[in-house]
Design goal:
about 500 residues, hydrolase, Rossmann fold, nine-stranded mixed sheet, 16 helices
């Protein structure tokens, strides 16, 4: 039975086609709207040049008296710009004189040029200029309606830009006379400005709704779909019984061998208590067993991280040299979560990563600029890592060195807490001690003992269970008798 789905016009920008649900349905017309400077002309010009490079004739029509060489000069810095296509597959015309004469003359010029070159794409840059020139709603509506019919008849896609915010456009006739609407915007986020794209309408085609990240670089425009909006090819499977250890026998024994394979773990603790060091042990232990590890730090460079590990007896230089361990520094400078995770998953796929540490979960959480997205974003990330066979640890700082505030249940990061390891300082008899506890391991056995641990030149040492004080997890311990098995006195 033949498919009822219409054929698609590929934009030549893979990430744009993903948002479009595969591409633009043929014989449709789409408006790209947004305020000045948001990237409308760059996007449509890139689509035009990519189509011409594939051998599809394209007509670009300007609607002002601005010279064509000025437009081409502004595009020449992008890698998609290929001057050899001009006059061969990409034809630039000015419709300004025809527009001054009237809608019929402009429409006839555009359709005649499309037919003459057998064009598969017509790009008109600047519908607002036409509105301003005519100042007549009825003429503009008739022009767009008849132009759309004419383009459909010759199997040509129409791309039109206009300089209106989305809410303003939706009240104008242009919104009802085209098949699709794409809105670009530049939004304030504190002192930052971020680019976004939204597919508001695309007739007869399922597409990714809502706002998505947009970037402009030397290659042109690129879009990063919201992680939680991207379809996930989920395969249900029972949990494995395999454990992934830290290479620290006393700690691994608390978890009956280590963390459950494919799980996500939140390693929470006070500032400076040893979260990064324990996480480094985790990826290093896997790398020694041939499991590629990836350690991403928002704070420390690879040189700083490896030097600090070496000072406490953990030498990872050989693992770095043979590339079974990769340490990556991601300074949290105007970080975009979707872009970061896109690159992270590409690295995981390319290197076959099986153990992952993200050192600084709070920085990742804050980079999700819309707080309402955070829980679903992190849940989607955890699921994608699991499906790739990755066992992951996320470190998170507990704000207070001592105190009773330890409830993560309402925080978005709680979604990552399949397993929860807590490291705390405890004050007793005027001295500070480090303690650790496994607070949670989903569907797995673990020992709930509180353990003191020490970090010195010889490494990390986990001591025997503590039973000599109460209130240890609050950081404010109270002696209850003689020490039994632990290091507290």
């Amino acid at each position: 039975m033949p498919s009822s789905e219409p054929p698609l016009f590929k934009s030549g920008i893979p990430s744009f086609d993903t948002l479009l649900g595969g591409g633009i349905p043929t014989r449709q017309s789409v408006i790209i709207t947004g305020t000045p400077g948001c990237g409308k002309t760059v996007l449509c010009s890139q689509v035009a040049f990519e189509a011409a490079a594939r051998g599809i004739p394209v007509v670009m029509a300007t609607v002002t008296s601005e010279p064509h060489d000025k437009l081409m000069s502004s595009l020449s810095g992008f890698s998609f710009f290929k001057p050899e296509l001009l006059g061969e597959k990409l034809f630039v015309i000015s419709a300004y004189s025809a527009l001054k004469r009237g809608p019929k003359e402009a429409r006839d010029l555009l359709l005649q040029t499309v037919r003459e070159h057998k064009a598969g794409l017509l790009f008109i840059d600047g519908l607002r200029s036409i509105r301003d020139l005519w100042s007549d709603e009825a003429r503009l509506r008739e022009f767009l309606y008849e132009l759309g019919i004419g383009l459909s008849a010759v199997n040509c896609i129409g791309l039109f830009t206009t300089e209106y915010p989305l809410d303003r456009l939706m009240a104008l006739p242009e919104a009802t006379t085209v098949d699709g609407i794409v809105a670009l915007s530049i939004q304030p986020q504190g002192a930052r400005r971020v680019r976004r794209i939204e597919l508001v309408k695309l007739r007869g085609r399922a597409h990714l709704t809502g706002e998505h990240v947009m970037t402009i670089n030397q290659g042109g425009v690129e879009f990063i779909p919201r992680l939680e909006a991207t379809p996930l090819d989920f395969h249900d499977a029972p949990p494995t019984l395999t454990r992934k250890g830290f290479g620290l026998p006393e700690l691994d024994a608390l978890m009956f061998g280590g963390l459950p394979e494919l799980s996500t773990t939140m390693l929470a603790g006070s500032m400076g208590i040893g979260k990064t060091l324990l996480a480094t042990h985790f990826v290093a232990d896997g790398a020694r067993k041939g499991e590629h590890g990836l350690f991403i730090s928002f704070f420390d460079s690879p040189a700083m991280l490896t030097a600090r590990a070496k000072r406490v007896g953990l030498d990872v230089d050989a693992l770095l040299r043979d590339r079974t361990l990769t340490v990556q520094h991601e300074p949290p400078v105007e970080l975009e979560a979707d872009l970061f995770v896109r690159d992270l998953l590409r690295t995981v796929d390319a290197r076959g990563v099986k153990r992952l540490v993200i050192d600084g979960l709070s920085e990742l959480e804050l980079s999700i600029l819309d707080p309402a997205r955070r829980r679903m974003f992190l849940a989607s990330l955890a699921m994608r890592l699991r499906m790739r066979g990755v066992t992951s640890i996320f470190t998170r700082e507990v704000p207070k060195v001592v105190g009773t505030e330890l409830d993560f249940s309402d925080a978005p990061v709680a979604i990552l807490g399949e397993n929860l390891l807590l490291l705390r300082y405890v004050e007793l008899h005027g001295q500070m001690h480090r303690i650790l506890s496994v607070l949670k391991m989903r569907d797995s056995k673990y020992a709930s003992d509180l353990r003191e641990f020490q970090i010195n030149d010889t490494g990390v040492k986990v001591l025997a269970p503590l039973r000599s004080a109460a209130g240890l997890l609050t950081g404010q311990a109270r002696p209850i008798g003689a020490t039994v098995g632990g290091g507290l006195e």
